[in-house]
Every structure is written in structure tokens, then in C-alpha cells.
Specification:
Oligomer: heterodimer
Shape of chain B: elongated
Number of helices of chain A: 7
Number of helices of chain B: 9
Order of helices and strands of chain A: HHHHHHH
Order of helices and strands of chain B: HHHHHHHHH
Distance between the termini of chain A: 118 Å
Number of domains of chain B: 2
Strand content of chain B: under 5%
Radius of gyration of chain A: 45 Å
Distance between the termini of chain B: 41 Å
Structural class of chain B: mainly alpha
Largest interface: A-B, 33 and 47 residues
Structural class of chain A: mainly alpha
Amino acid sequence: MKRAHLTDNDFIQTLYGVGEHEAHLQSCSACHERFLQMRQKRSDSVLEVEASSDFLAAQRRKIYQRLGQPQSGRLHWAPALAAAVVLLVAGFLAYRPNVTAPAHPNGNDTQVFSEAYSIEQNAEPGAMAPIHALFEHEHSEE
Amino acid sequence: MRLMAGPLAAEQTESGLLRDFGAWMASEQRRVFALCQRMLQDRDEADSATQDAFLKAYQALKRDDFVEIDDPARWLARIAVNSCLDRLRSRKWQLWRRRPSPADESVILAMTASASPEAEDRCFAGEIGTRLTAALGRLSARQRAVFTLRHYEDMSLEEIGSVLGLDVGTVKAHMFRAISKLRVELKDLYEGSSR
């Protein structure tokens, strides 16, 4: 049986090194020819990166300049750390716990104390009041 | 060419090393800048990455424990690619970075839509190359590095693995994903190759 030619995907995979079609390319002259054309196209598609002599000379000057400076590459995180510390300090200073608000909005300490005292002294729960009212109503009808 | 520096440090003065380094830098500079430009697609960033690469190379050469290397060009490419990868990774946090505007993208697409009888010549390949370069933005940092080193530098997968410090299987996996993402552009580039 005659082996079919490679597909576009096969060619592309082979061109980029992930295809397993080397054996076929060696035995099929048509596919080998096309593979060479595709490789040529790849190199044609590679655009020259523009870099004038002046640009490169300026770049070399910058490199020489940096070669003469102490390296600060390991301190790139320093500005971020400084900003974080400033934010933390600012947040800490801005935070004011509301300690001056009255514990009881409608009265002073004496009033609160007397209310608590009366509740404590009353042996009967407050929920009994409606039940007492029922009986008083019956007595009044009699 | 073999690169020797550290071992020479005892005999060679700083100025001598700097002079040799300068000559070597001048011979490699254009290639390194082109590699950085292709990976980063930003001229200013490529400029900075190129400077970083040569700076790191010089610092490594100056070290006393520097070992002689057989392939300085590949060694330098490795430093440059790693500088570019650092920059690509930090881009994730730079939310203000401008993406290509829809107008720019439509211009690029219009260039390929104008495929004419001369579609097989270098001009067309160059146009597709422009579009392919724009499409590299869809790749992750590693995929972009792997694809760039193969497409533009024509490196083997083993060489790419050596440059990036990855095994060949991992390089293959990245390459496979990269060409899957660029399927449309690559098909447009190569479909003109008649059987």
C-alpha cells in the first residue's frame, strides 16, 4: 500500500521538532521537497530587527555606565516593602477605637443601675403580666 | 570560540578583561538585542533586557570561580532569554500595560487578507511574519521562549532545552502547545508551499 503524503499539520509539527515523520521525509521526495520549501518560508518570514549602529553604540555606552555602578538588582523589592510599611503605619494611626460612646444611649449609669436592680428584685418574670391581666378582667366582670 | 575570563583574572587586569569583553559584546550585541526584541516585542524593554544580559555576563566572567565555557553564544543566549522571561513574568502584574489596539490588529489582519498571486514571495512571508509576531502575545512566557528560539534562532529542541534549563520532553510539550495556539497563523504562512 502506498503511504499517503504528510498533511499540513504533520509538516508544521516536523518543522518545529515535535513531529515523528523524519523517516517519511527521507523516503518521499515530494514531501521532502515541500518540507524544504516550508523551511525556506520560515526563514523568509523572519523579519530583521532594526538596530542602527548609533542605537547599538548608545546601548554599549549604557552598559559600560552600568558596569561602573554598584549593583542594586537585589533591592528591587525595597520600594514595595517601604510602601507596605507606610500603609501599615498610616492605617494604624488612622484607626481610632470608639471608646467615648455611651454604653447606654438613653440614660446615665445610675438609670441603668436602677433598671437592672428592679429586674433583679422582681421574682416574677415580665411575661406573666398578660396572664394577670386576664384574671383581673374576669374579676371585674363578676 | 571558547570564552575564558575567571581563570585569566589572575593574569588579566580589569581593563584587559573589559577590553576583551567589549569586543565580544560588540560582536554579539545585535543578535542578543534581536532575540530580546522578538521575545518582548517592546523596543525599550528589549534594550533594557540586552543591557541586563551583558551586565550579568560580565559579572559572571569576573567571578574567580567562573568555569570556562565551550559555547559562549549559547551561554549568552541563555542569560538573555532568562532576562526576558523575568520581564514577561512581571508583566502579569502590570495591568496598565497597553495591549495592541483593535485598530492595529485590524491593520495586521488586513495585510494577510490581501493575499494575491504573489502570495508565495518573500513579501507575503514577511507580512505573515508580522502577524505571527503579533500572535506571540497569546503564548505563555515559556511557550514564547521555546517557539522564538526555534522559529527565529533555528535551534534544535536539545539546544533549546540547554538554553532554558529544561529537558527535551518539557520543551516538546511547550512547543506543541505553542504551535497549537498559533495554528491559524502557521497554516497561513506555510499553505502557499505547493507540493
